[in-house]
Amino acid sequence: MQVLLFRSLVAAAILAVALPQEAAAGTTAALESVNYGAFTQTATYSVANQLGFFIAYGLNVTFLQVPNSTYGYAQLLNGGYDIMTGTIDNAVNFRFNSNDSLTVTGQLDQGPELTVASIPNITSVAQLKGLSLMVDSAVSGYAYILRKVLALYGLHLEDGDYSFQVVGSTITRYADLVAGQLPNGTAVYATILTYPFTSEASVVPVDQRPNILARVSDFIQPFTSSAFTVRNQALSNTTQRALIRTFMAAMYSANQFLADPAQKNCSIAAIANQLNVSTAAATSAYSSAIDPLTGETSSPGSNFTVNRQGLLNVIDVRSQFDGFTEVLAGFNFAEAILPSAGNLIDSSVRDEALNATVQYSPISC
Ligand SMILES: *[C@@H]1O[C@H](CO)[C@@H](O)[C@H](O)[C@H]1NC(C)=O
Ligand SMILES: *[C@@H]1O[C@H](CO)[C@@H](O)[C@H](O)[C@H]1NC(C)=O
Ligand SMILES: *[C@@H]1O[C@H](CO)[C@@H](O)[C@H](O)[C@H]1NC(C)=O
Ligand SMILES: *[C@@H]1O[C@H](CO)[C@@H](O)[C@H](O)[C@H]1NC(C)=O
Ligand SMILES: *[C@@H]1O[C@H](CO)[C@@H](O)[C@H](O)[C@H]1NC(C)=O
Ligand SMILES: *[C@@H]1O[C@H](CO)[C@@H](O)[C@H](O)[C@H]1NC(C)=O
Ligand SMILES: *[C@@H]1O[C@H](CO)[C@@H](O)[C@H](O)[C@H]1NC(C)=O
Ligand SMILES: *[C@@H]1O[C@H](CO)[C@@H](O)[C@H](O)[C@H]1NC(C)=O
Ligand SMILES: *[C@@H]1O[C@H](CO)[C@@H](O)[C@H](O)[C@H]1NC(C)=O
Ligand SMILES: *[C@@H]1O[C@H](CO)[C@@H](O)[C@H](O)[C@H]1NC(C)=O
């Protein structure tokens, strides 16, 4: 059933764009390749990929799963990825601490489904005392928000109330949490989950189902999370800049489709097919993707603008845990986060992308 639906969706999407092109040019235009690095398959990506938006924009997007942030951002800088989406704290860290040449070109979401989740027999944050908690990196943004939430419950990493297991990105941590152990048999207890894993967790058989101990949005909000990120050099190369512009335009069109309540069922089907999950899990994921506070349609103006307050909160949480050790005294954060060419955020390619959208509606869902 799901497979059939998936095939008909893809067939419809290909037909929708291939026919007019063939009619016009007598041949199917070659697609441009994009290497897209990402930690999770967001709802916007699912819609863009499943419903033919990338093809309509002439793109052949290869989704490259980021295994961990250290590796992912190195890939971005060395040209392995043309563009990536990752939580903006990484860009803040690599840029302000290490002066790495990367730039944020827009915000995708404000941390949908960011939760502290545990194995079934742990039912409160207090029970995490004395345990080791899974993180991507001990100095990554999600480790800091885990510390922030736990600190509000009186548990402090620096006091030895708990420790960290460095395991990898959310997709790995989720699999380990449901299994109750790392591949080598070490027990696991809790971690931070993000979209779509909190939704996926909600439909896991009850004896393995993770508990949601806390929602980050109850403690920190707004909170800017996934952001489009590129290496600086790509912005000054005409070919690479055009590819980034087209990718962001396709994602923007898909994001508007996602935001349209009339397309709800179609978006849910796209999410279900992309993630290979049940309609129940996809419906839950859809709800978080369109959440006005945390979702993928929550950026100011719904146009990939970075929420300044959300970014200030990211910087605030990192500061609280001494996460700016390499930043010189007197550094002007307020000015450094103004969107401008050469700064952390440069929205000019986003501005161009909004002008480069094409008319496209998936034939049927
Ligand atoms: C898309 O890119 C992949 C990997 O580079 C390639 O194998 C595939 O043939 C391409 N598809 C199209 C339709 O261009
Ligand atoms: C990150 O991923 C790379 C590539 O898969 C791997 O070689 C490396 O060991 C990983 N690092 C951590 C800390 O897991
Ligand atoms: C950061 O790197 C840029 C080049 O990418 C360089 O111009 C600048 O001087 C560096 N700043 C510091 C503080 O090292
Ligand atoms: C939960 O189960 C794990 C593994 O079976 C065990 O090590 C741990 O002590 C249990 N924790 C609680 C709070 O019951
Ligand atoms: C199991 O794997 C984790 C994460 O890679 C590692 O930190 C730990 O030392 C390993 N434990 C054993 C007993 O090999
Ligand atoms: C711009 O990028 C293209 C495609 O990656 C590359 O072939 C070209 O050499 C680059 N141009 C410059 C001036 O670096
Ligand atoms: C959307 O799906 C629901 C539940 O399956 C169904 O009741 C409703 O009629 C559908 N709406 C449209 C517009 O197809
Ligand atoms: C989708 O999930 C089903 C069952 O959960 C599994 O059997 C199937 O292999 C998965 N398909 C893909 C393409 O991963
Ligand atoms: C995006 O939305 C913001 C906030 O509403 C608005 O100020 C800005 O002009 C919009 N940008 C574009 C390029 O449409
Ligand atoms: C987008 O289009 C508008 C209207 O044509 C124009 O005023 C604006 O300069 C364009 N912006 C960019 C960044 O191309």
TrEMBL record:
Tell me the InterPro entries matching this sequence: SsuA/THI5
Could you tell me which Pfam families the record lists for this protein?
Answer: NMT1
Localization annotation:
Periplasm
Keywords annotated in UniProt: Signal
- Belongs to which family? Belongs to the bacterial solute-binding protein SsuA/TauA family.
**GO annotation, biological process:** alkanesulfonate transmembrane transport
GO CC terms for this protein?
Answer: periplasmic space
Domain of life from the UniProt record: Eukaryota
Q: Where are the transmembrane segments?
A: none
Cleaved signal peptide residues = 1-25
Name of this protein = SsuA/THI5-like domain-containing protein
Q: Where is the SsuA/THI5-like domain?
A: 41-259
